[in-house]
Amino acid sequence: MRAVVITGHGGLDVIEVRDVPVPGPRPGEVLVRVHAAGCNNTDLWTREGSYGAAEDPDIKTGWLGPLDFPRVQGADVVGTVVASGDEASAGLVGSRVLVDPAEYDGPGPDARPADVLGSERDGGFAEYVVVPSTSAHRVDGSPLTDVELACLPIAYGTALGMLERGSVSEGRTVLVTGASGGVGLAAVQLAHARGARVVAVCSGDKGEAVRGAGADVVVDRRRGEVLADAAEAAPSGYDAVVDVAAGASVGPGLELLNPGGRWVVAGALDGWAVEIDVRRLYLSNLALVGSTMHTPRIFDRLVEIARRGDVRPVVAATFRLEEVGRAQAQLARRQHVGKLIVVP
Question: Using alpha carbons only, what angle is made at residue 142 by residues 136 and 147, rounded to the nearest 5 degrees?
């Protein structure tokens, strides 16, 4: 089969297209023929090795530590099960499935990701991929296309996790940063679907598309007055901030939150080093919450959303398998709205 691998940490030059053997499923696993696989910022950061470590923020590593190479990236997979490793999972053969990219640190519904497809194990930028049978969720009747379904696992799972941890519900007011990107746009759509009032931060040229996804107000970050404009957009304050940018705005941005509000962060596009006045946190009973991906409970909810077609993911562009490098280059430029999808 054809697969796209990274041979180490580095630039686009470490991406290679190779012919490799089709993997065989072991007991408890299934073989999925990949119909579509989504691109994520995690693909860039994993390839670049930009996650760092507590003891050395500048060390080249994956998000959970050192990686084995070559590695097939691609965490967002939708496809058809074509083989099973045992009789217990044979009933999945022939099913259209959405794959949960995470393996977890425990059996409970609120367990945390401890291993991710395309990072700790080979992923979906290939014609076939092996996954645990418990990670393959049937979506045969979903009204969403394969390309739309491939938008969901990382971006929408992360966004849904952020909304859950931010207690975003009907009637709440939420600020979403990076609203034209994969996670940000997913958060806009999902928060709108919950009945929240959504103020979205993005560059002005993407405002119409973000408003079309469900934003009530769009704040143009290019004006350079994001916090002031966000405050004007919600004079009564925010119940939650869903933040994929972080950076210097976090500290002063806490003033936007109502007492008891939650600032949920799942990215650091504007910088990972922040400074806050901790008195603001405890005097107003605020919560600064880190949020990585999803839990089994949240992914189950995402699968139900996918089966019903409650949201229609925005697809910016599709690419052939041989164009993964071009897709990652476009992703890094951040000039698009929505998701970039690889179609083997």
Answer: 75
CA geometry: angle at 324 spanning 318 and 330, to 5°? Answer: 70
How far apart (Å, rounded) are the C-alpha atoms in residues 133 and 88?
9
Report how far residue 107's alpha carbon sits from residue 114's, in angstroms, rounded to the nearest whole number: 12
Domain 2-151+313-343 - what CATH class?
A: alpha beta
Residue 88 in tokens: 């217990």
Q: Give one word for 32, left, alpha or beta, with left for phi > 0 and alpha for psi -120 to 50.
A: beta
Report DSSP letters for 135-200, one per residue.
GEEE-TT-SS-HHHHTTIIIIIHHHHHHHHHTT--TT-EEEESSTTSHHHHHHHHHHHHTT-EEEE
- The model's pLDDT over 297-330, given as tens digits with 9 standing for 90+, comes to 999 999 999 999 989 999 999 999 999 999 999 9
**In this structure, which topology does domain 156-290 adopt according to CATH?**
Quinone Oxidoreductase; Chain A, domain 1 (3.90.180)
Which helix (H) or strand (E) covers residue 308, if one does?
helix 296-308
**What distance in Å separates the CA atoms of residue 296 and residue 299, rounded to the nearest whole number?**
5
Burial 165-192 (b: 16+ CB within 10 A, else e): bbbbeeebbbbbbbbbbbbbbbbbbbbb
Helix (H) or strand (E) holding 47: helix 41-48
Average pLDDT for the chain: 92
